[in-house]
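Can anyone check this?
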Amino acid sequence: MSQYTTDQILDMIETHGGPKGLDLSGKDLSGIDLSAQTATEKAVGYRQARGDWPAWYSPNTKGINLSGARLWETKLTKADLSRADLSGAILAGASLHSVYMPSVNLEGAVMVGAHFEGADLTDANMRGTNLRRAHLRGSTLTGADLSGANLTGAHVGPEQLQSARSLEGAHLNP
């Protein structure tokens, strides 16, 4: 299980002044609940108390805001990141086995060599994402937007790519 609680992660983002540049590299966040439901419930209470949305909440995705965070080689196995905003985040070499990420925003994220086996990326925004040498076999990409994504050398099956919403401009060279 995660070496941090959900509240500790939210406090780290808030103390840091937002997620951009927050370094969680190499941390074990396995099984952590950073789901849209949890984030929204906590954010509504925060907003009622303080009058504004917290830095760790993305009103756009209605989930946790980790945009621009550093998550190199972070272990997120079986974590719930539904509707999270991970745009521009660095997840190179991250372990995302069986992670639950429907409707996640990964636009422009760097995910070189990341492991997504068994991950649910249904309806994910993966436009411009660098997935070079990523391991996507066994993941669900139904409805995912992979426009402009770099999938060079990625381990992904043709049936997975066929279920994606868009591959326009994606780099698919093996």
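Reply from J.R.: I decoded it. The CA atoms of residues 91 and 111 lie 5 Å apart.
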